[in-house]
Amino acid sequence: MSAPTKVVVLELDGDCRVEPVRVRLTLGNEGERLTVQQRGELPPCPELIEALERWRDLYRHLGQLNRALKPQEILYEGRIWSKPEECRAATTELTEKFRAWLSATSFRKIDEQLREEFSRDESIQVSICTTHHDLQRLPWHQWRFVERYPHAEVGLSAPVAELPPSPSPSLGQKVRILAILGHSDGIDIETDRRLLKAIPDADVCFLPTPDRQSLSQVLWDQPWDILFFAGHSETDNAQGRIHLNPDESLTLDELKHSLRAAISHGLRLAIFNSCDGLGLAYELEQLNIPQMIVMREPVPDQVAQAFLKGFLQAFSQGRSLYEAVREARERLEGIEGDFPCASWLPVIYDNPVTPSLNWHSPEILPQNKLVIQWSALFKVVLIAFMVTSLVLGMRSQGWLQASELKTYDRLVQLRPKVPADERLLIITVDEEDIAYQDQHHMERRAGWSLSDGALAQVFQNTSNQARVIGLDIYHPYAFEPKLADLIKSTPSAFVGICEMDSPYSTPDSMTPPPILNEEQIGFSDLVADPDGVIRRHLISMTAGENCQTSHAFSLQIVEQYLQSAGLMPIKRLSDGRQQIHNFILKRFEHNSGGYQLPPVDANGYQVLLNYRYSPPHTVPLRELLEQSTGWSLDEDSIVLIGVKQAWQDQHLTPLKFGRIPGVEVHAHMISQLLDAALKNRGILWWLPKWQESLWIFFWALLAGIWAVSVKSPLHIGLGSAVIIGSLFTICWLLLLIDGWVPLMPALLGIMGTPVALIIRDRVCQRIGI
C-alpha cells in the first residue's frame, strides 16, 4: 500500500505591493484533518510585482504563434516584439526576486519546518490559497522547497471552497471525456484530438466548434468525468473567455448553470489547453469543481501539445494529478530553446477540500474495475434491498391492498375481449317479466318474482337440450305438484340455491325447496372485498343449519354437468386441496396475491375469480315463454335463471360495466370451473411470497442500476418510464395466461430506489463521506 500524499496549504492574505502578507501554514495527510503548524508573514515587495509585470509583458511579446485569438500589441521600449534573450533575462530576474522574498526572516520558520517535516521520496501536494491575483501569478514552482522535493508540485486555490456534490459511482468501464474543440483559426488542434483518442480506458466525445446551446445541452444531459477545451481563449479583467466558434464566445459565468449540473453529475477535472487560463480558473473555482489545469499565459501550439501528451501519458499510467502535471511541465524544459518559459505555463487550480485525483481513483476510473463495479453494485443492491423491505413492510400492513386491487382491475379491463361462453344461457327476470306473468295469470307468491307456472314452462322449453338448469332465485316453499313432477322427470339436472346462516338470513326466506336433495342445492353466498368488488370465488364451506350443503351453487352445477358427461367431479386431496376432474384448484389464502385480509375473510375454500370480458347470452323470461326469436340453446348447455332488477342482487366486479346481476356473477364462476376441468386453465394463479419478494427486488434493483449508470435526471426519468412501461406490459402479458404478479409494489420499488440513492448521496455529501 502506497504512503498517503502529504498536503501543504499556504494561506496568504495581503497585498504585497503595499503591505506585509500574512501567512498561515497547515499540513497533514490527504484525506485527514489538517492542522495549523505555523504562522508568519512575507514583507511588502513592490519590486517583485514590477518584475512579474515586466516578465509578463516581455513574454507576451515574443511573437510566438499561440492560442490567443488577438494578442495585444503593447509597445515595450519602442518595440512591438521582444527578443527571447530579453524574456530569459526577465525570467531570471523574477526568479531571483521571488526566491529572495521567500528568504525573508519572517517566513524562515515556515520554510524550515517544511524541510524538517518531509522526506525527499514523499508525494507532496502544495496549495497556495489566496484571493490576490498578483500572488497567484507568481512562479511558485520556482520555490526552492518545491524544487528540492522531486515528488512535490504546487497548485492554486481559493481560501473559501465547498465540497462538490458526490455523484453515484458509475458502473461504466471507461473515463468519460468531453472534448470541446473551439475556434481554432491559425492554430492546430488536430494533434489534441489524436492525443485524446489514444488515451486508454477512455470514452472521448468530441464537440467541434459547438454553439452555446448544444454545449449547454451536452453538459446537462450526459455525465462526464473530464472536460477538455482546446481553442482560442483569453482573460480580460480577471474574467476568462473561450471562443466556441468564429462567431460566438462566452465567459464561464454565462455557462455556470450547465457547468454546475455537470459537476453534480460527476465532472471532476477541467483541462483548458488554451491561452491565458487563470481567468477561467477564477470563475470555475466558484462552482467548486475539484481540479483544473490551465495555462497562466498565452501558449504556443507546440507547447500545448507537448504538455498534453506528457500529462496524459503520466496521468493515465497512474500518477496523481499533481505528479503528472509536474512531470509534464518539467518535460517542457527540452523545448524552451525555441519557446522560452514553456515550463512556467501549466498550473493547477484546485478545490482545497477535495483529494487530488488520479486516473485510478473512484472519482475518475476505479482502481480495480471489478472492485469498484462490485462496490457500486453492492450499494445499489443494498439500497434496493432496503426499498424492497420497506415496500414489503407496507404491503404486510395492508397499506397497498387498495392500490394493488385497483391496478389488477385495470389490467383485467385491458385484456382482449374473450367471447361469451356458448355453453351457458341466462334467463333473466325483471319488472317487465313480472308484469308479463301477472298479465297471463301466472300466480306468484307475494314478494317473489317467479311463479311456479313460469318455471314449469321454462323446463318444458329447455330441458331437452340443457344438461343442467340452475335456479338463482330463492324458493323456500314447496313446488307446485305439476312443477315438482316435472323436475323429477326431466332429463336435465336441477340445482337450486340457499343462503348460509347469517344475521340477515331467516329460515322462511333463504332455505331451499323441500324436495331437493343435497346434490341439488348450492349456497349462493358471494364474498366481496373491502371496496365491495367481487374478485374471489367461494366454492365450498362448512354446511349450515338452514343451508345444508358444503358446495357453492356454481360448483354444484359444474359437478352435475361433469357427472352427466361421465367425468370425475370434484374431490378433496389428502393435503386439503380440491381437484376438479384433472385440475387442482389453488386455494386462496388471506394474503394471496395483492391481498392482506384478516384470516377469517379467507375461510372456506376460495379461488380468485377469473372473469370473461363478455357475459353469456341473456334472454328475458317473457321472450322464452313466448317462444319468440332472439334466443337459442345449444345441446349440453347450462341454463341459469335469475333476477335482473336494479334494486336487487347487483354486484360490483373488476369489469368496467358497473354493477351486474348475481346470476351473471355465478355464470362467470361456472365458466371458469368448466375451463379448469375441461381445458386445464382459467383459474388465476399467483406467486409464493418469497418469489413475489424477489420479483419486487428485481425491479427495484433494475431501476437502481439504471440510475447510477446514467446519473442525468432526464435520463433517469426516461429510463424509469421505460422500466415502468416494461413492468406494466409484463404484468399484463402474464395476466393473459392467468397469472397475477405484483405491479404496484414493484412500481414503488422502481420509483423508490433512485430516490433513495439520491437521498443517500446528498446525506453523504452533507456529512462529508
Would you kindly provide a written description of the structure presented here, covering whatever features stand out?
The protein is of the alpha/beta class. It folds into 4 domains: 6-157, 2-Layer Sandwich (Nucleotidyltransferase, domain 5); 175-365, 3-Layer(aba) Sandwich (Rossmann fold); 374-397 and 687-767, no CATH class; 403-686, no CATH class. The chain is built from 23 helices and 29 strands. Strand 6, helix 6 and strand 7 (202-208) form a beta-alpha-beta unit. The chain is rod-shaped, with a radius of gyration of 43 Å.
In short:
With 769 residues, the protein is an alpha/beta fold. Helices cover 39% and strands 19% of the residues. It has 4 domains: 6-157, Nucleotidyltransferase, domain 5; 175-365, Rossmann fold, CATH 3.40.50.1460; 374-397 and 687-767, no CATH class; 403-686, no CATH class.
